[in-house]
Design goal:
This protein has 406 residues and is of the alpha/beta class. Helices cover 38% and strands 18% of the residues.
């Protein structure tokens, strides 16, 4: 038989997916070599049926894991009734969800949108509008180095990592960046031109780094002094993830923000974000000054209400399992010299290494364990809220196998 008559090897399912995407999809993602097909609880399965323990939950989105029976029931029933109304009309779930969020946050008003970056955009508009009512010169925003707030222009403008901003400059004018927890720099940055300050209570993409309570208290004091808006970005470190509803509730005493941006876990995998605000901040936006087409539809609001019913019972377990996970990881720190620090709160956990962690993520896929690496050297774990100690034990066994190579 001639070589020309030999059939070419057939492509795997993964290769077919990769080939199709490489031909037609914008090549802006550095995807891992993994094509997922279905999920159940804290586990995912690829297109070939291989099972993975999921410690990333869609970067903190699949809060109740995969295929949660109560959530799929709500989706099935509500999708048969009504998916979308637009915000020209009322439906029965927005008010109920707003009430729940106001009660758990200690704030006064809610607005619903579709994503975290959109929530940040709205929060920045509130700060700018509030400042503009005082003076046209009151437009400056303070943000933190190493922060991440989103990919749209406003959110990108206040993201304190040049690698994300460089290709799109010039961005929003009037943004000042200061180091996390540097109270002297914070005080120096504030002036009568300051419209607001934005920060994550725990920097997520920046490496799971908490902002100190004393720094937050000083920011509150300066916002009061200069009549500026304090924005808490709770997109990754909120809605239960830190073991409390929001990470500012971890502080003792609690320091209340004026505005909270949220998204990720609230609708269990469906796109939803939003803004919470006190009345002072809410007064900055009048009728027609802000809006959205898709935000706060009946399906996502109904799913979010079901999520909160489940979350109330899960929070004690999340705190317990999160602390257990961190303690087990600290045990690895004592065994492997390249592990520098274990930090986090609730089920938001970072393991800082003194070597790059990208290959460990690929090793994890090989061993059936999903996590990621942020800031080059921080392994990030954002598991589903239903994680239990037995899942932690399995994770630690797999991490030992991965770490043993280094």
């Amino acid at each position: 038989m001639s070589s020309s008559s030999v059939a070419a090897p057939s492509l795997s399912k993964l290769q077919k997916i990769q080939e199709l995407e490489s031909s037609y999809l914008l090549q802006n993602y550095g995807r891992y070599p993994l094509a997922l097909d279905r999920g159940k609880g804290v586990y995912l399965y690829d297109v070939d049926g291989k099972k993975y323990l999921d410690l990333l939950s869609g970067i903190g989105v699949n809060s109740l894991g995969h295929n949660h029976p109560k959530i799929t029931k709500v989706i099935r029933e509500q999708s048969a009734k009504l998916l979308h109304t637009s915000n020209l009309y009322y439906h029965e779930y927005q008010g109920k969800l707003a009430k729940k969020l106001v009660e758990i946050s200690g704030l006064d008003r809610a607005f619903f949108c579709n994503s975290g970056t959109e929530a940040v955009e709205g929060a920045l508009k509130i700060a700018r509008a509030h400042g503009h009512k005082i003076s046209p010169e009151k437009y400056e925003i303070i943000s933190l180095e190493n922060s991440f707030h989103g990919r749209t222009f406003g959110a990108l403008s206040v993201t304190g990592q040049p690698k994300y901003r460089a290709d799109f400059e010039p961005l929003l004018p009037g943004v000042k960046f200061i180091d996390r927890n540097d109270e002297a720099a914070l005080e120096a940055a504030f002036s009568e031109r300051t419209a607001g300050i934005i920060f994550e209570g725990i920097q997520g993409e920046g490496g799971v780094l908490p902002v100190a309570g004393s720094f937050v208290a000083k920011a509150r004091e300066l916002c009061n002094k200069f009549d500026a808006i304090m924005i808490h970005d709770g997109i990754q470190c909120g809605i239960g993830r830190p073991g409390t509803y929001f990470s500012y509730q971890l502080l003792d005493p609690v320091v209340m923000p004026d505005v909270v941006a949220f998204a990720k876990p609230i609708s269990c995998g469906l796109p939803m974000g939003g803004i919470l605000m006190n009345q002072r901040a809410a007064d900055a936006l009048g009728s027609g000054m802000h809006g959205t087409t898709f935000g706060g539809g009946p399906l996502v609001c109904q799913v979010a209400l079901e999520f909160f019913d489940i979350l109330e019972e899960l929070l004690p377990q999340m705190r317990r399992v999160g602390e257990y996970f961190r303690e087990e990881l600290r045990g690895l720190q004592g065994k492997y010299g390249f592990v520098k620090e274990v930090r986090g709160a609730g089920l938001m956990i970072g393991v800082e290494l003194d070597i790059p962690g990208k290959q460990m993520v690929l090793d994890g896929i090989e061993h059936g364990l999903l996590f990621n690496c942020t800031h080059d050297t921080v392994l990030r774990f954002l598991p589903a809220y239903i994680l239990k100690e037995k899942h932690v034990d399995k994770s630690i066994k797999l991490l030992k196998k991965i770490f043993a190579k280094y």
